[in-house]
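My main concern about presentation is that the manuscript never shows what a single data entry looks like. The format is easy to grasp once an entry is in front of the reader. For illustration, here is how one protein appears when written out as sequence plus structure tokens:
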Amino acid sequence: MHKISDIKGTFTLRNGVDMPYLGLGVFQSKDGFEVANAVKWALETGYRHIDTASVYNNEKGVGRGIRESEVNRKDVFLVSKVWNSDQGYESTLKAFDASLRRLQTDYLDLYLVHWPVLGKYKETWRALEYLYNEGRVRAIGVSNFLKHHLQDLIPDSNIVPMVNQMEFHPYLVQQELIDFCSENTIQYEAWSPLMQGNIFDLEPIRNLAKQYKKTVAQIVLRWDLQHGVVTIPKSVRRDRIIANADIFDFELSQKDMVLLKGMDRGKRFGADPDNFNF
């Protein structure tokens, strides 16, 4: 069991950096007021981790939300990702600079390779190592890397990725990948923890929600954290952002943890890291 304390609680990465285990995801949140407000509401609620990406086209709004909040930039764990068309050594360095300009910050807390673009991700990773060694990013990692991608990358790297952000929910556990990451001290992180909204149709989870007097989303997000998986539910609604963080006054029993994991059917709602065309 992983110790879960409160909304500002963290898991410690291999290099000693503390990563808040609950964050706000902003995928598909519109740039401008929508995303800026979501970020402000999250920070006001106590979130200290905001996850964006250059391809989301909302880094400007994210930066604005942080600046307009009462929270200091140094207290926010800010994450972005290099998009596939920017992969390669020089182009990744340029993409990083462009992300910083849009976010109006001079460093990131975590920078990720968004997808394992064949023939490019090793050069991209070399650029991330450079940025890390220069002190321009506090931690570096990957997203959507399966076990064989990591096994290909690690021997040719100076730094092992500190984080792997993956699609993760009761229908897609990928335990073998989690175990591999765990053996290599790579922090596992969930995107799409609520199965793009499909989670609300699952009766076993609805039953647990009744039993614990919690919402379906709260049950699943709590399951992530007790699994030792960082989670970044996406919402632009103030009430949802607040509700998603109300997961620190209960604990799922071992039996219920197993029940949720037993729902695994290897089903993806997002793209397959072995077969994507963007």
